[in-house]
Design brief:
Blueprint: H1 5-8, H2 30-64, H3 71-99, H4 105-139, H5 145-148, H6 152-176, E1 177-181, E2 188-192, H7 200-232, H8 239-272, H9 278-296, H10 298-308, H11 311-324, H12 326-329, H13 338-361
Antiparallel strand pairs: 1-2
Length: 362
């Protein structure tokens, strides 16, 4: 039976992120720490600024024009809120990575972990809900209860359910996160410390893989594989643009989150006692920094993919810019008038529903 890495060594090295530091510590982490102190604060700062501006604009547009919102807009609003929660934790992790110690106290350690984990899982669950919403509207227009009863109460109930699931998935990390004084020195660390001899750490890795990649990717592939044939059957010049947008959604999610989940799975094997060497420990730490950096930038792309690539949202965004900055954007024409946009949306929806109805009769 393979020994766990914690049994292989008693030496402990803390890390910058909120995930628990792995065992099998390398004898020399100087290069890794030097790289982290420069690279991570810089990257986190860029992601924070770009993501905060993009998601903040999405929230402003949807709040201002909430009277004309639909279920898709509700999901988009909560997706932006999730990304903002996640982004709010990055300045603290950037400071932590820069000085290699936690200076904000125990309460802030847990509070930042709450922001990080709630934003992480909230973003994933609302992407799933948005995908299912599109699927039910287009594929099961007349047969789905989800499509028939799209009331305000139903939307609120679904939103509360998603946030409850996000909190439930985040609870293990939140409960076991704490600021500790390592080895009695003045250097404090903020990390998740699971009880020794339990399977909580292994469970956290598997949870990340299942909820962070397997389930959302499976839902997206299944739903969009059913949506695309229906869109292609519509006599509309915009069907190819819609299909390209769907392919971009799935491809970006896969490319940005798959490397991260592969490294998480390797850390899971590492926790079980496989690849338990100092070199593997250092390689996994370095790999995690790269793949985590790639994954974090996805929250910057969410506003571009889900919001700004939509014609209706671009018009609303340009309308706000005209009101806020009339001298700069007063002469910019909207892509279409609101009346024309409503007629186009109505025609596309009628085409989809008619197609779905004819298929159900067959």
């Amino acid at each position: 039976m393979a020994r766990s890495c914690e049994e292989a060594t008693s030496e402990n090295y803390s890390h910058y992120d909120n995930l628990p530091p792995d065992c099998c510590s390398p004898h020399n982490t100087t290069n890794l720490m030097a790289f982290s102190r420069v690279f991570l604060p810089t990257l986190y700062s860029i992601v924070f600024i770009v993501g905060f501006i993009g998601n903040g604009l999405v929230v402003c547009v949807l709040v201002k024009y909430h009277k004309s919102s639909n279920m898709s807009d509700v999901c988009l609003f909560n997706l932006a809120i999730s990304d903002l929660l996640f982004l709010l934790s990055l300045p603290f992790w950037a400071h932590y990575a820069a000085i290699i110690q936690w200076t904000f106290g125990s309460f802030m350690c847990r509070a930042v972990t709450v922001l990080y984990m709630l934003g992480f899982y909230g973003s994933i669950f609302f992407m799933i809900l948005m995908t299912i919403d599109r699927y039910t509207v287009i594929v099961h227009t007349y047969t789905s209860l989800f499509s028939k009863h799209r009331s305000v109460r139903a939307s609120i109930a679904l939103v509360l359910l998603m946030w409850t699931l996000s909190l439930g998935a985040s609870l293990p990390s939140i409960i076991f996160s704490k600021a500790t004084n390592s080895n009695g020195t003045s250097a404090w660390t903020c990390r998740v410390e699971y009880p020794e001899g339990t399977l909580w750490r292994s469970f956290s890795y598997i949870e990340l893989n299942i909820l962070g990649l397997i389930i959302p990717l499976s839902v997206m592939v299944f739903c969009y594989s059913r949506i695309i044939p229906i869109l292609m059957s519509i006599k509309s010049q915009k069907k190819h643009k819609s299909v390209r947008l769907i392919l971009v959604l799935v491809s970006v999610f896969f490319l940005f989150w798959t490397p991260y989940n592969i490294v998480i799975f390797l850390k899971f094997l590492h926790e079980l006692g496989y690849m338990c060497t100092s070199q593997w420990y250092q390689d996994l730490k370095m790999a995690m920094q790269w793949v985590e950096s790639i994954a974090f930038t996805h929250c910057c792309l969410n506003p571009i993919i889900y919001a700004f690539m939509g014609q209706r949202f671009r018009n609303l965004f340009l309308k706000i810019l005209k009101e806020w900055f009339p001298l700069c954007f007063g002469q910019c024409p909207t892509i279409k008038s609101e009346r024309s946009q409503r007629m186009t949306t109505k025609y596309s929806y009628s085409s989809v529903t008619s197609r779905s109805k004819s298929k159900s009769r067959l």
